[in-house]
Every structure is written in structure tokens, then in C-alpha cells.
């Protein structure tokens, strides 16, 4: 797309949905022209942003039952930005559409869950006015196979909304990059350009890549788990480690009409098992994700094994943190079960028990484990508290910022872009301006 320039005002490292959203925000809502983005792969959104690496869901916080009301309000505001962009650009139309809409619900099974969900609806319905509480009969009308084969005496209730966005975040990344290029023809957007080393020299950062050396006044690192590795090379985030959690999926012929989520465990930063229509094929239902720790920063990429251990660290503190986390009773049982779900033969037979909470009558023959489907979420470990940090992590340094984005990083990409754009303009100062009012008018 361009050649590497000798210098930039702003350089973004990482071309997933977070990095490209930031590039779009800078290109449309600031007067910064000399901005660049480098991505090590041949295209945008090829790691955890790809539809084969995540559950393709735009998370608003309405059916994610491990969110507090405060967390849901924050996530909703940022997910609304993505929704507004998708709708405004009409990206749900045509053969290359980026999103599809389905109904979505969170299903409570059994007396305890039913009571919890009814209570939750009282407070969450004010934040989500389109959210409706429905009983068993209405659930059956929307999702017949949720009732088929179920014990008629089993208590059941659901929260449902029509705003179930299934998004191809890889295509969204490309859309952001394309829009940025049109808005700012001076933007330098490079693929197959890998960061090799970054160092500080006075007021500028020296960035060595496989295509040469450049410098930048301000740098934004949006490279998932790699962001922490890069931060630590500059002396930031030394008290953190990354625990890479890999998610896998099973698929079945269409057994659900929309998205059906189950109640999540508040203590866990991982999504509960749910069923989703494939973003580009509604005749396939995807179930998952499973979650297990792996020793790579990227799933199915053994070249990131060494990088993972550089990021995790070999000191006593990260080891003690890992022991404290893994041997937490709730998390230990969860990880052990999820490890089994990925095993040949036995995994499918164990996992179907989870799916039958959603589709009681699903047959073993309908279920297929898809190899190569599923990505990695970089869960941040705080080695001071020896606990997992819930949600995204951001580190800020001297004219540099680092985004480490586990789920729901894609859903909050424009929210991150909004805050990061403001921060970058502050870093640069002088004649550079961020038109927050225009951003808010368009997207909030």
C-alpha cells in the first residue's frame, strides 16, 4: 500500500480491529496527516480478529451475565459505536456484508438461575429497553429446539432482544483501513511489515522493521498479547504477565434461529457456552467456546512459543501468580473440563452435555469439532495481586500506549479508539486537534 517513511507523527503497530479502528478515528476526526500503520501479516484482522478465531458477537452487555450494571453500561456505549458505524455504512447488505442480525437471548435453566435472571432483568431493563423477559412458551416459539426433548417440569426463562449482531470483524478491520485511506490519502498503511525492535531516542521512537527503520513522535501498540511483550522491552508493565487462553468451537447443522447464551460464572473472565449462527452461513450453528491455557501468543503458531515465555516471565512472581490462579477451585475445575473438551473422541461426548443445556435433543452425530477454528485471548495476570485482571488492559508511557485486548476487545474497538485518539492528540500537542463533538455525533 505504501513504502515505509523515514518518520511519522503517529505510528500504529498492529492491524487487527483495534489498530484499524484507531487509524480510522485519527484519519476522520483529527488533523493528523502523517500517520502510519504497520501489520506483520499480509492482511488485516488475520489473528484474533478473524471470524474463525472468535464467536463473531458484538457484545453489548445485555446478555453477558458476568457483567455488572456498571460494566455493561460502559461496554454498551462502546458497542453502540460499532453498531452505528455498521448501520451508517450499510455494511449488512450485499454479498460481502460484514454483519447479520438475529435474535439473541440468555437462557436460565433451573430454579436458581431463573430467580437470578428475573432479578437481573429489573435493573438491566432500564439500561436495555429493548430487552424482554420471556417465559417457556415464548422461548419455544423463537427457538423450538430449546424446548424439544426438555423435561416439561424444568423451570425456564430468558432475556431476549432482536439486536443480535453477528460480525465479521476481519472485514470490519478492512473497512476501517479502507475508510482511513480514503479520508486521509497521506496515511501510510503497510502490511507484511513486522516490528523487530523499538527504542526511545530523545523525543522520538526508533522503530526497526523487516522493511527498514523509521521513527515516530507517538506510537500506539495494538498487537494483542504481543503488546505486553513490546511494553516490557521498553520497561513498562513489568508486574504483568499474559495467560493465553485458547478457545475452540464445535459446529452443527442449524439447530438455533439466533444466538442463545447461557448464564456465566461471575468469577470467570471467560464466556459461558453459547450457540451462534455463523456470520456468513445461517444454516450452521457454532457452539463454544471452550477455554484452555496454551503457551503461545497466537493460536496454531508455534513461532510465538518463545515470545509467550518472554512475556510471561521466568521469575518467582509469575510462577506464584499462575499457581494461585490455576489452583483456585472454580478456575481449576473449569480449565480441567475445558481441556477435556478438546480431546478426540471423549471431548465431543463430554461437551455435548453442556450443549444440551441449550438444545436438549441434539444428537452426537450432529456435532463436529472443527480443527483450526478458534483463537487466543491474552488474559492479563497482575503479579502484584496474583490475580487475573478482568477485561482489557491498557498501559500508557511517555508518548506511547499499549492495548492488550482480550474479549470483548472487538466490541469495544471504537471506544478504545475514542480514548486513544484523545490521548495521542494530547501527546502531540501544538496544532493537532481531535474533533470529539463530530465523533460523538456520528457514533455515540
Description:
By secondary structure, the protein is an alpha+beta fold. It folds into 2 domains: 7-97 and 167-241 and 390-443, FAD/NAD(P)-binding domain (3-Layer(bba) Sandwich); 245-388, no CATH class. Helix content is 34%, strand content 26%. The chain has 13 helices and 20 strands. It has helices at residues 17-29, 69-88, 111-127, 136-142, 144-147, 169-183, 225-233, 305-312, 316-326, 329-341, 346-355, 413-428, 436-443; strands spanning 7-13, 35-38, 99-109, 132-134, 156-167, 188-190, 195-201, 204-209, 212-221, 240-246, 250-253, 259-262, 274-278, 281-288, 292-293, 368-369, 376-382, 387-388, 393-397, 400-404. Strands 1, 2, 6, 7, 8, 9, 19 and 20 form an 8-stranded mixed β-sheet that branches. A hairpin with a 2-residue loop joins β13 (274-278) and β14 (281-288). The radius of gyration is 22 Å and the shape is globular. The chain starts with 6 loop residues before the first strand and ends with a helix. The mean pLDDT is 92.
